[in-house]
Amino acid sequence: MTDDGTRVVRSGLPEPAAHEPSLPGPVFAAHFHLPGDATGPYTYGRDANPTWSLLEQAIGELESPEQPAHTVAFASGMAAIAAVLFSQLRSGDAVILPNDGYQLLPAVRSRLESYGVEVRTAPTAHDAQLDVLEGARLLWIETPSNPGLDVCDIRRLADAAHARGALVAVDNTLATPLGQRPLDLGADFSVASGTKALTGHGDILLGYASTRDAALADGVRLWRKTVGAIPGPMESWLAHRSLATLALRVRQQSAGALALAEALAARPEITGLRHPGLPSDPAHRLAVAQMRPGRFGSVVSFALPDKDHAERFLAALTLVDEATSFGGVRSTAERRARWGGDAVPEGFIRFSVGIEDPEDLIADVMRALDAARRT
């Protein structure tokens, strides 16, 4: 299979068996039959589950279609992030985190520092991580960054980190494996929240980490077992079912996000407009070089003049849910500063484009902007 649209439909499916479903239903089991000294792939529900196995195989085929990869699924994206960081870092090690990434990273930083890990930070743009690589054990990259949508050069940073003996992990949540393949670009780990675009329906909490290194996968898997951060079988089955439409969703959302960004560029009240697919975006040239054509993600970010203006805009939308996730089939938007964890203006909007017709969505956004300005 060479096309992503075909791959997502077939990924992780078992060999066809007469009178059996193409995707077996979820297996609910805390324990499995183990007669005598028998061992096997499934012994206890905290260690492994047939439903996880199929999902992990499917994600591995998407993250690394040309080479074998090991994928470990988790109960949430944060569980996957924590597993990679805490399975690889020890007291005295140094790690580099983005200072403009996911809003829970500062909490992760505090926890790492309490365990004696040195945490360095750098912005995503301009490959600023290069200046703080020396002596680090692990470089954590988030590209495109959330919520600012800056982009860094994965290949360049991975080569520089490996030359200094550091591992590289990339948060691939926003791009998805159909928009960007960090392992192909030299990363040791591709990590993501499956809660968002990967599953796309806003009804599952899930995460995963993929790597081509079996020893690294074993370390992450042992961390999952130790802390019990396991995905539920129903969530895993729903996630696998949702993968079949990933290519369709990514294509529609990326096209809609670019169309919305182009429309927003003409609005005088908007500042700081970002979307990697916009030719005018500061990250566009690099995004084109390392992301898949036409798959620059569903997220558009921009700022309105102040908090009240942003709140009026959000209240006037009719086709958009005010919610704090992204990547879903229904468009969502929120004023990010309400959480206090991102260095953004009070009027900053993170807008996630769903699969609605772009013309309908843009008309709704323009009408809401007009209403917010007149009030």
From TrEMBL:
Source species, domain of life = Bacteria
Q: Which InterPro entries does its entry note?
A: Cys/Met-Metab_PyrdxlP-dep_enz (IPR000277), PyrdxlP-dep_Trfase (IPR015424), PyrdxlP-dep_Trfase_major (IPR015421), PyrdxlP-dep_Trfase_small (IPR015422)
Enzyme kind, highest EC tier: lyase
One Gene Ontology term of the molecular function aspect: cystathionine gamma-lyase activity
Any GO BP: transsulfuration
Keyword entries, A-Z: Lyase, Pyridoxal phosphate
Under the heading Gene3D superfamilies, the entry gives: Aspartate Aminotransferase, domain 1, Type I PLP-dependent aspartate aminotransferase-like (Major domain)
Q: Report the cofactors.
A: pyridoxal 5'-phosphate
Chain positions with N6-(pyridoxal phosphate)lysine modification: 196
Keyword Acetylation annotated: no
Q: Which GO terms describe its cellular component?
A: cytoplasm
Q: Where is this region: Disordered?
A: 1-22
Give its E.C. classification number.
Answer: 4.4.1.1
User: In the UniProt record, does the keyword Transcription occur?
Assistant: no
Family, per entry:
Belongs to the trans-sulfuration enzymes family.
Q: What is the protein name for this chain? A: Cystathionine gamma-lyase
Species this protein is from: Streptomyces natalensis ATCC 27448
